[in-house]
UniProtKB/TrEMBL annotation, chain A:
GO terms for molecular function: ABC-type transporter activity; ATP binding; ATP hydrolysis activity. It is a peripheral membrane protein. It is found in: Cell inner membrane. One of its GO terms (cellular component) is ATP-binding cassette (ABC) transporter complex, substrate-binding subunit-containing. It comes from Bradyrhizobium nitroreducens. SMART domains: AAA. Residues 4-234 form the ABC transporter domain. InterPro entries: AAA+_ATPase, ABC_transporter-like_ATP-bd, ABC_transporter-like_CS, ABC_transpr_MalK-like, ABC_transpr_MalK/UgpC-like, Mo/tungstate-bd_C_term_dom, NA-bd_OB-fold, OB_MalK-like. Belongs to the ABC transporter superfamily. This is Sugar ABC transporter ATP-binding protein. Involved in beta-(1-->2)glucan export. Transmembrane domains (TMD) form a pore in the inner membrane and the ATP-binding domain (NBD) is responsible for energy generation. It holds the Pfam family OB_MalK. Gene3D superfamilies: 2.40.50.100, Nucleic acid-binding proteins (2.40.50.140), P-loop containing nucleotide triphosphate hydrolases (3.40.50.300).
TrEMBL record, chain B:
Residues 87-303 form the ABC transmembrane type-1 domain. It is a multi-pass membrane protein. It is found in: Cell membrane. SUPFAM superfamilies: MalF N-terminal region-like (SSF160964), MetI-like (SSF161098). This is ABC transporter permease. Signal peptide: none annotated. One of its GO terms (cellular component) is plasma membrane. Pfam families: BPD_transp_1 (PF00528). InterPro entries: MetI-like, MetI-like_sf. It comes from Bradyrhizobium nitroreducens.
Length: 355, 317
């Protein structure tokens, strides 16, 4: 186990810079998830950490050692690939023991460690099978087994669940988290799925267009997104954004589209008339007489909750209710955002305005 | 829709005559789709093969109907030292040429699989020896290895390395080396391009995984590339061996089996005895004698392919 320091790392392919100075400190034993939309540079960063891509500038260190010029095999890391990259011509046992074999470990040693990893992952009965004969989830576990056998300083996961069906993905998510709690190995996990990031991470790093937008625990990111991008990326259904202006006439309010009045707990200093974006999560709407008038467009019950799509001042928003309201399309309701849970962002820069 | 159509068609069909029923029979239709391919195989493969084997048991000569003579032709060949020399030549030619074609072809394939400038052009260039007509390249080699005008002899003389021309196609050892060289030159592109196609099916992430597992470049080849390529190697080398074993054009254009039968292969000897000398029966016997060797080559690759359990489907045993 080891800490990992990523300091001002840049990466260019030719003249095209894809990472613009990324700094991520990772503590010993932490489970860090790099999350962001396609093309944000998260996979590139992981591959640089693994040594599969060169580092254009900046430093990456594992433990106290700068590994910029260290060969991948000497970095003492193990990686789980998106397509698992299992060797098709080797049995499960040979797949898991391959790295030990290359290091000239004895047959007994290999056997012992493969057995132990197989036990952890419940792969015992499958050791003599070939990857072709395994299901998606089993292959996924073999790929993790291959990483565990090596007992590395750091585990790297590159979108390991995206080839699985939805149900299995949820199961494997729990399994990986459980595995981390058991082995406590520093883990860097790349995904584009914010639910995976929220459920698994000790620390989430939200990346976008080659920069880090925000770092923090899942709930920090959820409760206090630094900017509009993070606010929209974390949470499902996504946060509603309404453009308008801050008004301060004794009490702070927000004037939304078509003059809709929305509540604000506090307004930033000297912000009367300032153009801004009002953000409210779907679960932070309540139905109240002093709410903004909204016309229901679509109602989507999911059983545990109901998603209501409605128009406020002509703009569509989504609200989520745990109670079972009897709504029909075309109904007029009054939606009130919970003022203490409202987010306010700068209209031009997207930066967070309220505390 | 189909479910609806079936009950409605039924009563009508029972009233139809046999011919109409036959027209609706899928197997009957399938048979007719197969006929062209079957006819092609029977007329151009099975019939000549059968005729050749039959001829080898007769004393047919050109212009005269033969009589069945049993295994007499084979008895003759058994005591014919030239026949045995041609068998030796064919085995030597096939073994040396195929082994070198494999080695060079694999090397080229690995090279062409790397990222390098002008990759597409280089790949296309490798195919050139393959697309030149065999006789044309044989004629070119004939000139290159000519006893008087050989460019090789000329160059070496000008470099001061030799004093007189090398008698490439007149010396038995040199002649064998030359025809094998020409065969390799022609055969390498096929091996190289096919193996390259095989290499490109290997997922790059396997190499990345192996590199992280600590594999050196050699170990990457030894433990990943080579085992994953074996099925394709088996197919390519089977074809390569079959083509080389039955080679005729190149030898006939370059040496006609000479000097002193040193480059006579079974195919060229068969042609010489059957067509030039007119002894169709004997020539056919020489050709038929190739069949066991070819079958053996196919068996080797067949069992080579059978062994790869990891390729087989998703059965759970």
């Amino acid at each position: 186990m080891s800490s990992v320091q990523i300091r001002d790392v840049r990466k260019s392919f030719g003249n095209f810079e894809v990472l613009h100075g990324v700094t991520v400190p990772i503590e010993d034993g932490q489970f860090v998830v790099l999350v962001g939309p396609s093309g944000c540079g998260k996979s590139t960063l992981l591959r640089m950490l693994a040594g599969l891509e060169n580092i254009t500038s900046g430093t990456i260190s594992i433990g106290d050692r700068v590994v910029n010029n260290v060969q991948p095999k000497e970095r003492d890391i193990a990686m789980v690939f998106q397509n698992y990259a299992l060797y098709p011509h080797m049995t499960v046992a040979d797949n898991m023991g391959f790295s030990l074999k290359l290091r000239n470990a004895g047959a007994d040693e290999i056997n012992k460690r493969v057995k132990r990893a197989a036990e952890i992952l419940a792969l015992g009965p499958l050791l003599d099978r070939y990857p072709r004969q395994l299901s998606g989830g089993q292959r996924q576990r073999v790929a993790m087994g291959r990483a565990i056998v090596r007992d590395p300083q750091v585990f790297l996961f590159d979108e390991p669940l995206s080839n699985l069906d939805a149900k299995l993905r949820v199961a494997m998510r729990t399994e990986i988290k459980e595995l981390h709690q058991r082995l406590k190995t520093t883990t860097v996990y790349v995904t584009h799925d914010q639910i995976e990031a929220m459920t698994m991470a000790d620390k989430i790093v939200v990346m976008h267009d080659g920069i880090v937008e925000q770092m923090g625990t899942p709930l920090e990111l959820y409760d206090k997104p630094d900017n509009q991008f993070v606010a929209g990326f974390i949470g499902s259904p996504a946060m509603n954004f309404l453009k308008g202006h801050v008004r301060v006439n004794g009490v702070a309010t927000f004037e939304g589209p078509n003059g809709v009045k929305l509540p604000l707990k506090t307004a930033p200093a000297a912000s009367d008339g300032r153009p801004a974006v009002y953000g409210v999560r779907p679960e932070h709407f309540t139905i109240a007489d002093d709410g903004a008038e909204a016309e229901i467009v679509v109602v989507e019950p999911t059983g545990s909750e109901t998603q209501v799509f409605a128009k406020i001042g002509g703009e569509q928003v989504v609200a989520v209710f745990r109670e079972r309201h009897q709504f029909n399309p075309g109904d007029k309701i009054r939606l009130k955002p919970e003022p203490s849970l409202v987010h306010l962002f700068d209209d031009a820069t997207g930066k967070r305005l309220n505390a | 829709m189909a479910d609806v159509a079936i009950p409605r068609a039924k009563p009508q069909m029972s009233e139809d005559n046999a011919w109409t029923r036959l027209k609706h029979n899928r197997n009957w239709l399938g048979f007719w789709f197969m006929v062209p391919a079957m006819a092609f195989l029977i007329f151009f493969l099975a019939y000549p093969l059968g005729l050749g084997i039959w001829l080898s048991f007769t004393d047919t000569r050109i212009g005269r109907v033969g009589h069945f003579v049993g295994v007499e032709n084979y008895e003759w060949l058994w005591d014919d030292s030239i026949f045995w020399l041609s068998v030796f030549n064919t085995l030597l030619y096939t073994f040396v040429a195929s082994a070198l074609k494999f080695a060079i072809g694999l090397y080229l394939a690995l090279l062409l699989n790397e990222n390098m400038p002008f990759k597409a052009m280089l790949r296309a260039m490798v195919l050139i020896p393959f697309i030149v007509p065999t006789v044309l390249s044989a004629l070119a080699f004939w000139w290159i290895f000519d006893s008087q005008f050989s460019i090789i002899s000329w160059s070496l003389k000008h470099l001061g390395l030799i004093n007189q021309n090398i008698n490439f196609l007149g010396d038995t050892t040199w002649a064998r080396i030359c025809v094998i060289f020409a065969n390799i030159w022609r055969g390498v592109p096929f091996v190289a391009i096919t193996l390259l196609a095989g290499l490109q099916t290997v997922s790059p992430s396997l190499y990345e995984a192996a590199t992280l597992d600590g594999a050196t470049r050699w170990q990457n080849f030894r433990f990943i590339t080579y085992p994953l390529l074996t099925p394709i190697i088996a197919v390519v080398m089977t074809f390569s061996v079959l083509f080389t074993f039955t080679d005729f054009q190149l030898i006939w254009a370059m040496t006609r089996g000479g000097p002193v039968n040193a480059t006579h292969l079974m195919a060229t000897l068969s042609y010489q005895r059957a067509i030039i000398a007119g002894q169709l029966g004997e020539g056919a016997a020489i050709s038929s004698a190739m069949i066991p060797f070819l079958l053996a080559a196919i068996m080797v690759s067949w069992f080579g392919l059978q062994r790869r359990k990891w390729q087989q489907g998703e059965n759970n045993d």
